[in-house]
Structures are given as structure tokens and as C-alpha cells.
Design brief:
binds flavin-adenine dinucleotide, globular, alpha+beta, eight-stranded mixed β-sheet
Length: about 400
């Protein structure tokens, strides 16, 4: 008997994992997920877990809000969760320009339906976050309902949900190409373990999405860069239930509570993009010094753990959600592409919901995806969209 599926998903990260669950729950039929390694072994298990609805444009506000609602409702829906913990999130303004842009952003977010985001002055921010230095910043935008997930627990949550929905997860099975009919329709997926007949495919891949696309003739300008996360030793000031997370947006540095200590993460804008897992200790010292300016009690805390991993990004920091379009503009009918652009914890469930909608029905009600497809990029990988203003500092191109 032929190996057949009603939907094949490439990649068992948080995007492919949750999309497969949504598609199976929608009754698409037989869903197969092919994963070249093990579920979650890409970016999804290594993230810092920051989740915010404070997006930079209305679509990313919606994706963040939808994802937080999803995380909050997981127990009821799946009997398990991704460990979402509401801590609040302050996006710090350091310069005049940060404050101007931040106040404008709050107005946009409120107009987009995020009623509970507000501006905090420096004094109000320090009153809320006692470990925050009182000088060197101008307060920032703040929302109570933002927080973080536990990334390994999220991998566990979607893996359990996949199993409960009857999704067929095939680990150690690499996607190697697509089979198409003479009219361009998808008729099968080639893998390292043989061909799966199907008329629907969802391509994900996180930091490897570009390579996944190249296997079927797509040019996906999705990049990969080093991102580093460190956790400092416990301190009594952090041994509390709740203290808001902070993003020093100009420096691309963020921090949050973690097991009685402080977790902080950064991407170095001066670094060449590419796959990188080694730790740059000089950068660690620089970002640690910057952190100590804002959180003075961290100055003497020892390092508890540190890791570097490859993060996905797009040139405009926005997700890719659209049909598989070849460089000549022709479509591979039945194939779709989904990428969270380095925001897979905060937008992941929303991106996965949209991806499942597109793969099953060709449309979605969640956000307007008209501009989010591959056709927004030129041959050099430059986007015609303005970048999402709240993002880590990655290059504006992810070309060859
Ligand atoms: C250190 C770090 C910190 C981060 N912190 C945050 C954060 O705080 N908040 C946030 O929102 N986001 C964060 N991110 C980003 C987030 O983790 C990613 O955006 C998200 O995990 C991407 O999910 P994905 O499913 O697209 O990709 P992945 O999780 O990478 O999954 C893609 C999967 O595809 C598989 N694959 C690749 N090629 C093939 C093939 N040919 N055949 C079959 N399978 C294939 C890979 O093995 C992988 O398992 C962070 C990332 C890193 C690295």
C-alpha cells in the first residue's frame, strides 16, 4: 500500500508541531510530520521563552495576543501546557527617540485592541520593578499580561498533543524534495525514508528553512544567527513569584526571572550571521556589563548556565506565511511556507494556526496575510515592508 497523507508537515518545531495539531483537530485526516532529527531539536527547545503581545505592527499584536490566549487555555484544551507564566513586560526607552517611538507604538497597539498596554515613566517603572536602576532610562511601554513559556515544556506539550490527535510523527526522517504533477500541483513528498503521497504540504524549518526551500526550488530569504542566553545565580531579590521582564530594545538585550536567578539573552548586531552554537565570552562580558547598568545587583552574581543556539530571522523581522512561490513567481499548488522569524515562542501558536488554515483552506481569519508571503522579497532577499520595530538587531538582508 502506498504511504499516503492528507497533509505532510516538514519540521517538528513549535510551528510544525502546533500546526499539525490544529490541522488534525480540524479533521483534515491523516497528518504526517517529518523531522530530520528529533522533535524540538531546532530552535524551539533552546529559546528563552519570552512571550509578548506588544507587537510592533497590528498583525504581530494579534499573533501575540492569540498565542497568549492559546497558552492560557492549554489545560482545558489539551490537559497539558507550555508553562506560560504571566510576569508583565517593560520595553525600555533609553533615548528620546525610543520614547517617541514607544509612545507611538502604544497608541498603535491600543488601536489594534491591546487595551491594557500603557506607558510607564521611569519612576513608575522602578516602583513596579524594584531591581531596575532609577537612572539611565525613561521608563517604557508596559503590559501586565505578557510573560514567558518554558521552551522544553512547550516541546513536550505539542508532542503530547500530536500524539493525542493521532498525528504521525516521523523522527530521523529528512524531507528531501517535492513531487509535482505536470500542472504544478503537489502530489508527493520525498523523504530519506521514501515517498509520501499527498496533495498538501506545509514547509517549516526555523533556522534551516532556507535549506528546506532550496530542496524544492524555493528561494526563502530566511536567515540564521547566533543568539545567546545566560542565567545568573539566585538572589533573594529574584526569589519572588512575579517581577516584570524587561527589553532594552536598543541593545537587543532582555531579561526575566528564572529559578530564583535572572535569565538574560542577546544577539550581537556586529556579528556575521550564520549557524553558530559556540559561546562568545567577550560578548557575554559586554552584555553582562550593560545588564548591570540596569540591574545593579547582578554585578556580583556568578554565572549559573549559558547557551548559544541558532535563531531564525527574516530581513523585516516579520513572519513568512504564504504559498510556496518559486523565484519566477509560479506557485507550487498545495505547498505552503511558515516561519516565525525568531519569534516562535511569542507568535508560534498564532503562526501555526494561520499556517494550518492556509494549508487546509487557503485562507485565514486570524490576520491579513496578503503582504506576508514570499513575494514581498526581491531577488536579493530585501523586503518591501518596513521591519517590525520591536525586534532583536538582525541584518536587513538574509541573502546568499
Ligand atoms: C537561543 C534562542 C532564544 C530564543 N528566544 C526566544 C524568545 O524568547 N521568544 C521567542 O518568541 N522566540 C525565541 N526564539 C526563537 C524561537 O525559538 C524560534 O522562532 C522558533 O523556535 C522557531 O520554530 P520553528 O518550528 O519554525 O523552527 P525549529 O524549532 O527550528 O524547528 C524546525 C525543525 O525543522 C527540522 N528540519 C530542518 N530541515 C529539515 C528537513 N530537511 N527535513 C525534516 N526536518 C527538517 C529541524 O530539525 C527542526 O526540528 C529563540 C531562539 C533561540 C535559538
Amino acid at each position: 500500500m502506498a504511504d499516503r497523507a492528507d497533509l505532510v508537515v516538514v519540521g517538528a518545531g513549535t510551528i510544525g508541531g502546533w500546526a499539525s495539531v490544529f490541522a488534525a483537530a480540524d479533521g483534515v485526516g491523516r497528518v504526517v510530520v517529518v523531522e530530520q532529527g528529533l522533535a524540538g531539536m531546532g530552535a524551539s527547545s533552546r529559546a528563552a521563552g519570552i512571550v509578548r503581545a506588544q507587537g510592533g505592527i497590528p498583525a504581530t499584536v494579534t499573533l501575540g495576543r492569540w498565542s497568549i490566549d492559546f497558552y492560557n487555555g492549554q489545560w482545558a484544551a489539551y490537559g497539558t501546557d507550555s508553562g506560560f507564566r504571566e510576569l508583565g513586560y517593560l520595553i525600555l526607552a533609553v533615548t528620546d527617540e525610543d520614547e517617541r517611538a514607544g509612545r507611538e507604538r502604544v497608541a498603535m497597539q491600543r488601536a489594534a485592541g491591546l487595551a491594557d498596554v500603557r506607558w510607564l515613566t521611569a519612576d513608575e517603572a522602578v516602583a513596579l520593578i524594584p531591581t531596575l536602576a532609577s537612572d539611565g532610562h525613561r521608563g517604557g511601554s508596559y503590559r501586565d499580561g505578557d510573560g514567558h513559556v518554558d521552551p522544553p515544556r512547550n516541546v513536550r506539550a505539542y508532542s503530547l498533543a500530536m500524539q493525542a490527535c493521532g498525528v504521525d510523527l516521523r523522527e530521523r526522517t529528512a524531507f528531501t524534495g517535492l513531487r509535482t504533477a505536470s500542472d504544478g500541483r503537489v502530489i508527493g513528498v520525498e523523504t530519506s525514508a521514501g515517498v509520501i503521497e499527498t496533495e498538501r504540504v506545509l514547509l517549516t524549518g526555523g533556522p534551516s528553512l532556507r535549506a528546506v526551500g532550496a530542496l524544492c526550488g524555493l528561494r526563502i530569504p530566511s536567515g540564521a544567527a547566533r543568539h545567546t542566553v545566560a542565567v545568573l545565580e539566585p538572589h533573594e531579590a529574584f526569589a519572588i513569584e512575579r517581577q516584570p521582564m524587561v527589553f532594552d530594545i536598543g541593545a537587543g538585550l532582555y531579561w526575566r526571572l528564572e529559578e530564583g536567578g535572572l535569565l538574560f539573552g542577546w544577539s550581537d548586531p556586529d556579528e556575521q550571521p550564520g549557524e553558530a552554537r559556540a559561546i562568545d565570552l567577550a560578548a557575554y562580558e559586554r552584555y553582562r556589563a550593560r545588564l548591570a547598568e540596569f540591574v545593579p545587583i547582578t554585578r556580583d552574581l556568578g554565572l549559573r548556565k549559558i547557551w548559544a543556539a541558532t535563531i531564525d530571522y527574516t530581513p523585516d523581522h516579520l513572519p513568512i506565511l504564504g504559498p510556496a512561490m518559486r523565484p519566477d513567481g509560479s506557485l507550487i499548488d498545495g505547498a505552503w511556507v511558515a516561519a516565525a522569524a525568531g519569534h516562535g515562542m511569542m507568535w508560534g501558536p498564532g503562526v501555526a494556526r494561520v499556517a494550518a488554515d492556509l494549508a487546509l483552506r487557503g485562507r485565514t481569519e486570524l490576520i491579513d496575510v496578503t503582504d506576508l508571503g514570499l513575494d514581498r522579497f526581491d531577488a536579493q532577499g530585501r523586503s518591501r515592508l518596513d521591519p517590525d520595530p520591536i525586534a532583536l538587531p538582525y541584518p536587513r538582508v538574509a541573502g546568499d
